[in-house]
Amino acid sequence: MYLTIKDFSNKTGLPPSKLRFYDKKGLLEPSVRLDNGYRAYSVEQIHLAKMIDSLRQADIPIQDIKLYCTVNEQEKKRILQTWKVDLDRRMEVLLAAQKYIGGINVENPQTLLLSKWEKEKHLVWQRFEVERKPHPFHAYFRSAKDHLEKHGIECSNQVYIKTDTITDEKIIGEIGFEAIKTIQKMNDESFRFEVVPPTLFAVLQECKADDAFLCFSYIQVVIRYGFQPAGTKLERYSNLSAETFDYLIPLVT
């Protein structure tokens, strides 16, 4: 039994315009051509049509659906798992956005922003133990960058700080730069290489290193928005001589 596009539309609940769109994209082509020259669908395609439309409603890209419809059962399971991971990540981003919108207070100046690294970043870190004081790592920015350039590692001028340990007298942490070009494997233990995946950050802007209330302010802002950090917080300086920094709080990777 074969169905015209009108009958198939009635059976599936999908408008003819959508069926024609799926046909044009190669997702759901009518299975036969009738004697009168019109193309028709088979009854067996009803479930496929509904499944394709359901996947589109789940915001699955057309090319991904086309691939899913052509592979074997094992590969289908792998693709489904990939979709699930991606949807879970997108859900986390939406929840973070919801918290952000809910935390905005129009009566107060905005203190927190959202920023997303759309692509992975390749960071090169160097470890330092410094005296505990305001701007403890600032004096080492230039030497850290020079050390990279000496080894032929081209990097940006933005500086990242990651603090590991704080004692009464010392601070142990890392100074990092984003590599501009792909880095070949090196045996130099003075460098640590890290690939950071696309990440959504909450950002406190224009922070001052000598602000004694910075940590308290950060905690209050995080509580206000209901965020939970999803990794290590970063300080980002715009250049080697910058006196202020952005505080990056990872929310979703």
Automatic annotation (TrEMBL):
InterPro entries: DNA-bd_dom_put_sf, MerR-type_HTH_dom, MerR_fam. Keywords: DNA-binding, Repressor, Transcription, Transcription regulation. Transmembrane segments: none annotated. The keyword Ribosomal protein does not apply. PROSITE patterns: HTH_MERR_2. The keyword Transcription applies. Residues 1-71 form the HTH merR-type domain. This is MerR family transcriptional regulator. It comes from Ornithinibacillus xuwenensis.
